[in-house]
Every structure is written in structure tokens, then in C-alpha cells.
Automatic annotation (TrEMBL):
InterPro entries: Myo-inos-1-P_Synthase, Myo-inos-1-P_Synthase_GAPDH, NAD(P)-bd_dom_sf. It comes from Rufibacter latericius. One of its GO terms (molecular function) is inositol-3-phosphate synthase activity. This is Inositol-3-phosphate synthase. The chain crosses the membrane at residues 12-30.
């Protein structure tokens, strides 16, 4: 593949269905950073560096100086929500950021009002907002979203748009007939097929409007053949699913290390308490199921029990999420890991992570938006597996197992950037530093 990456000229609109805790923390954060009040900690696009060439060359530019990314000054935010609150009000309700910081960017946040959502309580029964579109059928709703997208682009003088799903986790839906082809999907939109969730309607509208889409929740959304086909047909980049933050982030940092040292694992029990609206939505069992499937998949893929039965064949893995309002967005997670070493001797690891959900998620939304826009400008369409780094449940081509190990995911991401820019890929072989050794081979 030979990429010709277009420059990031003009303004980039970041559209988010769901202006809740994560989205408002991102928007307020970017506005605060633009005013010099804060730093974009946790964002690879803003603070990360990338090694180029051989170690002896000592080239480590900032990623944002290596690849052409939209600058924070050129970003415009917009979105939809089932509640009519502007972003200042929604951020105040979410209680993630201090009132002082929110007041410093109040005018910018108040100016962003959500557009009416495509929503149905059948997909998230714990939400009761009424700021919702009405249409004859799901196709009519998709067309209304396309109008919103077009009007937003014009009104804000944007050159390009990206969409990142920051809406609630929807009920568990299995892939079925209606998801198999564009024709079946479009027929399903017209006859209100219940297997087409609101997030899929946004994805359809985005792709039809030429807007790439990243999915931050564990819903199927773009991870169905019909949408992948539509994305390819229209030359649009898509990726998903479920932002990798908190407990799963820790899992995909620690598990590759245990696996690398051939240490065995007998059990991994993960429990969480959180009290934000996300936690409230996940309190409904049919919504929790969607999250559970996403969270459970990571360990099997890293440990591969079928090829390592002595070490991981009996591993018991359990994940619980408990809604606990007093903690708000400050999620607390506990992991008890029963491992064993030499001769089967047992040991335990305990992790107690007192994290802040939206503080971990906001920089991921920024990076996903900027990298998705980059992919689109590089002419990369369909599934963007190189963005697996950001997801709990990375979307891959059919028949391809996802890579969950965060270090391999980072290598894949960095090599993709090097590849796009015509730099040598880095394999970490390093034999060429030892010329006498190479000569003997
Ligand atoms: N914060 C994290 O660490 C994290 C990690 C992984 C995934 N996520 C996912 O990100 C999403 C956002 O999380 P959050 O903490 O901001 O939740 P939140 O409840 O604060 O915000 C979600 C918002 O989406 C809105 N919404 C729901 N359905 C909608 C629709 N059809 N159209 C438009 N708006 C809709 C809700 O009204 C709400 O305001 C959730 O799905 C969550 O599971 C978050």
C-alpha cells in the first residue's frame, strides 16, 4: 500500500452521539488546554513520541509533529443527546471536573447544545430523556441525522467531520439476518427491525454522509457485515468497540507480562463499583450483558488457554459491575488474581484501582477522533484494526482474532504511522547493531 496522506487543512468537526460524562470531559478539557489551563495527559496524539529509524539515530519526534493531525485550535464539537442540557449543564451534572475549571470555559461549553437524539428506551430503559426525534421509521430517522450532519458542517464551516459514539451502552444484540448485507439492513431500517439499534442508525447516517465512525461503547454498531460493507463501498474508516479504560486497561497491561514469563493463572476475579449514569444504565441486566461480553474476551485472547492448557486451561474469569451512587464517576475496581509459578506453587496479586472513568476515557476520544480523521485522509477505509490500542473489544476482519496485548497494539499503531509516512518499520530485531554476529549468520 502506498499512502498519500492529505494535510489536515481547515476545521475538523467532532460529532458525538451522547454528550454525557465522557464527551463533556473531553470538550471541557480541550477548551481548558487551549486556554493553557491544563495539559492533555493520557493523549498519545498530544503528548506521545515515536521512535524513527535506528536507536543510534536518536529520532523521537512528537507523534503530532510526525503525522499531519488536526490541531486543537481547529476542532469544533457537536453532538446529540436524549437530554436537552447544554454541555456546561451536562458537565456540571456529571461532576467529573471541578466547578472552577468548568467556569473557566463556561461560555464555550454553554454554546454547545445537543441536537435531538435518535433514541428508543427499548435499548436503554434506565434513560428517560425526551429530547428525541420522531420519524415514520428508522430510515426516516437516519435521514434526519444526515440533515443534522450536513447542517452542522455548513454552520460551523468544517472541512471534515468524524463521529465518535459516546452514548450509553445499549442492550445486548446478537448479529442476525438484518445485519448481513446493505440491502437487508436498509430494508430493516424501513420496517423498523428491532435488531437495528439507535447506534447503528447513527453509524449508517455517518457513513452515508462520508463521515468516519469510531465506537466507544460495546454495542455492535459498526461491527456488522452490512456497515463494514457500506464503509468499504463509500471509502469510509470505521473502528470499535468499547473504550479501553480502568480495569480492562490494567488487565491488558498485566496479563501480557504474566504470559510472557510463562506464569500460570488459576483465576481472575474482577469487581467494580461506580455511580455515574453509565453505571446506572449498566445496572439493567440486558445492558450489562453487552459490557460483560466485551470485558470477558480479553484474557482468553492473551492467554490462549487452548494452546497453553497447563498454564491457563482451568482459569476462572469473572467480571462484576455494581451500581453504587456515592462514588459517582470515581470508579473503584478490585482484581484478585490467583497465579502459580515454578512447580505449581501458588501466589496472589491484588489490584485496587481508584480510577476516574471519564478522565481515562476523554483522551481516548480525542486520539480516536484525530487518528480516524488521519486514516480517512490517508485513504484507509473499512475496519481500522491499528486503532485496537484504544478498545476493549477490537473490531477485526471476519475470522481474525483481535489482538488485546496493549504492547503489541501500540507497536501495531506506531508501525502503521511509520508505514503511512514512508518510514522504516521497527521490528526490534536489533541484530544489525552487532555486525560481527550478523557476519557469522
Ligand atoms: N468512561 C469510561 O471509562 C468508559 C469506558 C468504556 C466505555 N465507555 C462507554 O462510553 C459511553 C459513554 O460513557 P459516559 O460515562 O459518558 O456515560 P453517560 O451516561 O454519562 O453519557 C452517555 C450519554 O449518552 C446519551 N445517550 C444514550 N443513548 C443515546 C442516543 N441514542 N443518542 C444520543 N445520546 C444518547 C445519554 O443520555 C447520556 O447523556 C458508555 O456507553 C460507556 O459504557 C466509557
Amino acid at each position: 500500500m502506498d499512502y498519500q496522506v492529505k494535510n489536515a487543512d481547515g476545521r475538523l468537526g467532532i460529532l458525538m452521539p451522547g454528550l454525557g460524562a465522557v464527551a463533556t470531559t473531553l470538550i471541557a478539557g480541550v477548551e481548558a488546554i487551549k486556554k493553557g489551563l491544563s495539559q492533555p495527559v493520557g493523549s498519545l496524539t498530544q503528548m506521545g513520541r515515536i521512535r524513527l529509524g535506528k536507536r543510534t539515530e536518536d529520532r523521537h519526534p512528537l507523534i503530532k509533529e510526525f503525522v499531519p493531525l488536526a490541531g486543537l485550535e481547529d476542532i469544533v464539537f457537536g453532538g446529540w443527546d436524549v437530554y436537552a442540557d447544554n454541555v456546561f449543564e451536562a458537565a456540571s451534572t456529571a461532576k467529573v471536573l471541578e466547578p472552577m475549571l468548568l467556569h473557566a470555559v463556561k461560555a464555550e461549553l454553554e454554546a454547545i447544545r445537543p441536537m435531538k437524539a435518535v433514541f428508543d428506551r427499548a435499548y436503554a430503559r434506565n434513560l428517560d430523556g425526551t429530547h428525541v426525534k420522531e420519524g415514520a421509521d428508522k430510515m426516516a430517522l437516519a435521514e434526519m441525522l444526515m440533515d443534522d450532519i450536513r447542517e452542522f458542517k455548513e454552520a460551523n464551516n468544517c472541512d471534515r467531520l468524524v463521529m465518535v459514539w459516546c452514548g450509553s451502552t445499549e442492550i445486548y444484540i446478537e448479529e442476525s439476518e438484518v445485519h448481513q448485507s446493505i440491502e437487508a439492513f436498509e430494508a430493516g431500517l424501513r420496517n423498523n427491525d428491532p435488531a437495528i439499534a439507535p447506534s447503528m442508525i447513527y453509524a449508517y447516517a455517518a457513513i452515508k454522509s462520508g463521515v468516519p465512525f469510531a465506537n466507544g461503547a460495546p454495542n455492535l454498531t459498526v461491527d456488522i457485515p452490512a456497515i463494514v460493507e457500506l464503509a468499504k463501498e463509500n471509502g469510509i474508516a470505521v473502528s470499535g468497540k468499547d473504550f479501553k479504560t480502568g480495569q480492562t486497561l490494567m488487565k491488558t497491561i498485566l496479563a501480557p507480562g504474566l504470559h510472557a514469563r510463562a506464569l500460570g493463572v488459576k483465576g481472575w476475579f474482577s469487581s467494580n463499583i461506580l455511580g455515574n449514569r453509565d453505571g446506572y444504565v449498566l445496572d439493567a441486566p440486558e445492558n450489562f450483558k453487552t459490557k460483560e461480553v466485551s470485558k470477558l474476551s480479553v484474557l482468553d485472547e492473551i492467554f490462549k488457554p487452548e494452546s497453553n492448557p497447563e498454564l491457563y486451561g482451568d482459569m476462572y474469569h469473572k467480571v462484576r459491575i455494581n451500581y453504587y451512587p456515592p462514588h459517582g464517576d470515581n470508579k473503584e475496581s478490585w482484581d484478585n488474581i490467583d497465579i502459580f509459578g515454578w512447580l505449581g506453587y501458588q501466589m496472589q496479586i491484588k489490584i485496587n484501582f481508584l480510577c476516574r472513568d471519564s478522565i481515562l476515557a476523554a483522551p481516548l476520544v480525542l486520539d480516536l477522533a484525530l487518528f480516524t480523521d488521519l486514516a480517512q485522509r490517508a485513504g484507509m477505509s473499512g475496519i481500522q484494526e491499528w486503532l485496537s490500542f484504544y478498545y476493549k473489544s477490537p473490531q477485526t476482519a471476519e475470522g481474525l482474532a483481535p489482538e488485546h496485548d496493549i504492547f503489541k497494539q501500540l507497536m501495531k499503531l506506531q508501525n502503521t504511522l511509520r508505514h503511512m509516512m514512508g518510514e522504516d518499520l521497527i521490528t526490534h530485531l536489533g541484530l544489525d547493531y552487532y555486525q560481527d554476529l550478523v557476519d557469522t549468520l
